[in-house]
Amino acid sequence: MDAQIQTMVYDVLQDAIVLLGSLLVGVVTRYIQQHYNAKQIEDAKGIAQIAVSSVEEIANVLGIKGADKLSIALNKARALAMKVGIELTDDQWHSLIHDALAELKGTWRSRL
What we know:
Blueprint: H1 2-62, H2 66-83, H3 90-111
Helix pairs in contact: 1-2, 1-3
């Protein structure tokens, strides 16, 4: 009977270790996915800021205005993002471009 109890305890411990291992893998995987997505979004924000800044710098010289500036900034941001493997929806890019423009305008106002 001692051998049966020992076998049952061993089986329960083995099942517990497998369960804990599975949970640990799930938690680590979720953390990595969240971290990667957060990093990807931060990179996309930086790309949007670069695109907006570069378009604003050349807009006055080339006479580019309004929707044309937005279109150029979106295309530039998408092209830069493709090089580093970032793919976002059009709505996401619009939001990031508008946020970058608002931040840039806020920076300009604070300097005046």
